[in-house]
Specification:
heterodimer; A: alpha/beta; Glutaredoxin; Rossmann fold; Ubiquitin-like (UB roll); 5 domains; five-stranded mixed beta sheet; four-stranded mixed beta sheet; 23 helices; 19 strands; globular; B: alpha+beta; 4 helices
Chain lengths: 600, 121
């Protein structure tokens, strides 16, 4: 068969960072070897794709045209898929993904994890080879850019983005079209577009996955922004810890240049646009736009007061427009399908979809994209598959170190920018950390404050000194040294830091503390007044473990599990724990089949 | 890229290769690849079909399936066009398979000589 051959079957192997670390590269190589071995390499094509979102079940391979979803693959499974499925057309049952109701699900689209999702920003992620510009074009890529450059004037493009109602996906939620119009109005001989890919929230990986899975979409979105505001140059500021994203983006820029989709006189429109990559060293504060621009200029990544806003005086003193990765990823859809198509999803105040990175004590860790207005319950339980080991839901943390913890009573809250702010959290870039009843909320707020405190650039006093003092108090509380005025002091410090810090990092740093105080103040009180950690997390406050006599079945599993022989008893009788010998490690409680061991 | 038209022409050329991954309902050729089918020469049929489809630039998916029980009639394939009945052809050879593809998918004529069943979808 000729090289122009159309393949009858495609095997899509996910090579996002998550799947690569669980061995996807090796799986892909074995597929290629096995296809060659069976002499069907001219019939079946192996394609590397970006993240499918279902990282929990990696490595993943999807076989088209049937769309069969194979998960948790091992190298020696591949021969069977090639011989049975690809050669003989029999689906390999044993390797199919098994849904929660224990049914084997062959089809990609039948899986509960994908059913409630709506993919706009992630549309191509996991469906195309991110290193192949032809696949992007075959799926309609760069058409929005062509339409914008040749058929629409600048004002019209801005108007479309305004009409779509798109708001900044980096967290703040500022209307994107409005932001563009500010930069467009600034008069200058040089302007810049910047893509903020300095994703720094613990547990967040939305931007990384988009850059890895569909880099051309970001190039296209940025070029359209450039055209709209009159900028002929752009920067992608991406952290150096994302090597795969940088590699794929670099290749994408090179390929786009070769095709004349970047460079001079694109589409014969007379418009020029070029793109650069700036690798950041990974400082959290560089996600703040003024610090980010300082970093590109080669200075220390420190924020400066606004105004002047970047739209007036930005990179190297020139008008600059900065948007987040996911924001740019929505632009081609808006131009191609129209603003109404975009705003038909989501809520009135927050149109469109949002990508979330699900992590924490959840069954289906991964990446999801849902229409705004989807409830937390749907995301966590229907898509996320609920909590690990069926434990009880306690809270979900959204918005990273700037966000807050949302308790169970708000599970039916529709997610959008405004509703999250109302309950004391925020959208943030889209991290969602799920916590179960084994999580200590004081410890959680200490974790996040520890993060922001060490990431504070040190320029302004409230943030530098204030977060340090707050962290000291939280450390004291978790060590059992809390004092009666501590809660009041925490609140007071939090308010001052929030009101007087220079940039967003400091202004939002107290949020995790404030929101846990709002919903879980009793846990703080238990730590301070009763010197107890109700969740049994803080080592100094754990209290003693004891056996619940009514529930104990005398199996003896706890005794065998105890590393210090602190448990004694006879089979079929109630066991006892010697509190003097007990080191509060909690192994017995974890192992007990009847949950008959309690702490406190 | 000198014009939007150039991009659109390019897309037209490239999107054929994405047919296999398309969710849209398009015509399918479903080839029986059970042990019986393979023993009777289904692999040659598959190659002939895929070659013919490439050559004639048809928008068709090739799908494999297992034994459907009529081992006697192998090699077998089904042709399904969206919204039409599913037609099963049997006793195929690479040559008549090519012919059937052209007749059924291009000329919209069912090759009655080789039909062994018709299913209402």
């Amino acid at each position: 068969m000729s090289k122009e051959n159309i393949y009858r079957s495609h095997v899509l192997v996910c090579t996002g960072t998550g799947c690569v670390s669980s061995g996807a590269r090796e799986i892909k190589d074995v597929f290629i070897d096995e296809l060659h071995e069976n002499e069907i390499e001219n019939e079946v094509r192996v394609v590397e794709t970006g993240c499918h979102g279902f990282c929990e079940r990696g490595p993943i391979a999807i076989v088209y045209p049937e769309g069969v979803f194979y998960s948790e693959l091992k190298e020696n499974d591949v021969a069977e898929i090639v011989e049975e499925h690809l050669l003989k057309g029999r689906i390999v049952d044993r390797l199919l993904y098994v849904d929660d109701d224990k049914e084997k699900v062959p089809g990609y689209s039948d899986i509960a994890f994908y059913k409630k999702q709506k993919r706009i920003a992630l549309k191509n992620c996991g469906r195309i080879d991110p290193e192949n510009i032809d696949e992007y074009i075959a799926n309609g890529g760069y058409e929005a850019m062509g339409i914008a450059f040749t058929e629409l004037d600048q004002d019209k493009v801005i108007e479309m983005v305004k009409d779509s109602g798109l708001r900044g996906r980096g967290g703040g939620g500022f209307p994107t079209g409005l932001k563009w119009s500010f930069a467009a109005k600034s008069v200058s001989n040089k302007k810049y577009v910047i893509c903020n890919a300095d994703e720094g929230d613990p547990g967040a990986f939305m931007d990384r996955s988009i850059l890895e899975g569909d880099p051309h979409k970001i190039i296209e979105g940025m070029a359209i922004a450039g055209y709209a505001i009159g900028a002929d140059e752009g920067y992608v500021y991406v952290r150096a810890e994302y090597p795969l994203a940088i590699k794929r983006l670099r290749k994408a820029i090179k390929d786009a240049e070769e095709y004349g989709l970047l460079g001079d006189d694109i589409f014969g429109s007379g418009f020029n646009f070029k793109l650069n990559i700036k690798e950041g060293a990974g400082a959290f504060v560089c996600g703040e736009e003024t610090a980010l621009m300082a970093s590109i200029e080669g200075k220390r990544g420190m924020p400066t007061p606004r105004p002047p806003y970047p739209a007036v005086k930005g990179l190297w003193g020139k008008p600059t427009n900065i948007n987040n990765v996911e924001t740019f990823a929505n632009i081609p859809f808006i131009v191609q399908e129209g603003p109404e198509a975009f705003s038909s999803y989501g809520t009135e105040g927050s149109p469109g979809t949002k990508v979330f990175a699900l992590t924490g004590k959840i069954n289906n860790t991964g990446l999801v994209e849902v229409p705004m207005g989807t409830t937390l319950r749907e995301v966590i339980f229907d898509i996320g598959g609920g909590l690990q080991e069926n434990r009880k839901f306690k809270a979900v943390q959204t918005g990273g170190p700037s966000g807050g913890c949302i308790p169970e009573e708000y599970l039916d809250l529709p997610i959008d920018y405004d509703s999250l702010l109302e309950v004391g959290a925020m959208m943030g870039s889209g991290g969602m950390v799920v916590m179960d009843d084994n999580t200590c909320m004081v410890d959680v707020s200490r974790f996040f404050l520890n993060f922001t405190q060490s990431e504070s650039c040190g320029k302004c006093t409230p943030c530098r000194e204030g977060t340090k003092r707050m962290l000291e108090i939280l450390n004291r509380i978790t060590e059992g040294e809390g004092k009666s005025g501590d809660i009041k002091l925490l609140r007071e410090l939090a308010e001052h830091i929030r009101d007087t810090s220079l940039c967003g990092l400091g202004q939002s740093a107290p949020n995790p503390v404030l929101s846990t105080l709002q919903y879980f103040e009793n846990e703080y009180i238990a730590h301070i007044e009763d010197e107890k950690c109700p969740a049994g997390v803080c080592p100094d406050l754990k209290g003693a473990y004891y056996v619940l006599e009514d529930d104990c079945i005398g199996c003896g599993i706890c005794m065998k599990a105890c590393p210090v022989d602190a448990i004694s008893g006879k089979p079929k009788e109630v066991y006892t724990i010697d509190s003097e010998a007990c080191i509060s490690c909690g192994v017995c409680a974890d192992k007990c089949p009847k949950d008959a061991i309690a702490v406190g | 890229m000198k014009s939007l038209q150039e991009l659109r022409d390019m897309r037209k050329r490239l999107e054929k290769d994405m047919t296999a991954r398309d969710d849209k309902e398009i015509a399918k050729v479903i080839i029986g690849m059970g042990t019986c089918g393979i023993a009777a020469g289904a692999r040659d049929i598959l190659q002939a079909v895929s070659d013919e489809i490439n050559k004639r630039d048809l928008n068709v998916k090739i799908v494999q399936t297992g034994c459907i029980g009529m081992c006697e009639e192998e090699p077998i394939f089904d042709i399904v066009k969206p919204g039409e009945d599913r037609i099963t052809y049997g006793n195929l050879t690479p040559d008549n398979a090519r012919q059937i593809i052209v007749e059924h998918l291009i000329n919209n004529r069912i090759d009655t000589e080789h039909v062994i069943a018709r299913h209402n979808n």
